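seq as requested:
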Amino acid sequence: MFESAGIKPQLASDAQNAIFTLKHTFDIDASRHIPRDIRSLKMADYDLIIALDKRAANAAASLGVASLKVKLWTVRDPWGGDLAEYDRTGLEIKKKLVQLKASGGSHEA
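struct tokens:
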């Protein structure tokens, strides 16, 4: 199971490109998803935190998440871009997820 949260979540009304990409790239219906801030979550409940940039990794660390539980994937944020930019980012994340799964979910993948 996975969940999504961010350090600066956008408004749900601004997430239409992300919602479209999740459906198109991952077959995930996120139409009812409400963007959340990581500070609203109990971070200790998660086995692995995937941060998509250094700021997110640092924010997780500032909340007390052990560095061994944080995996940094440097992924370009498509915010403000067109659907093609969201698709590129979605495909990049999908590739990394496939690699993570192939590694058995290890933090080294």
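The chain has one domain: 12-102.
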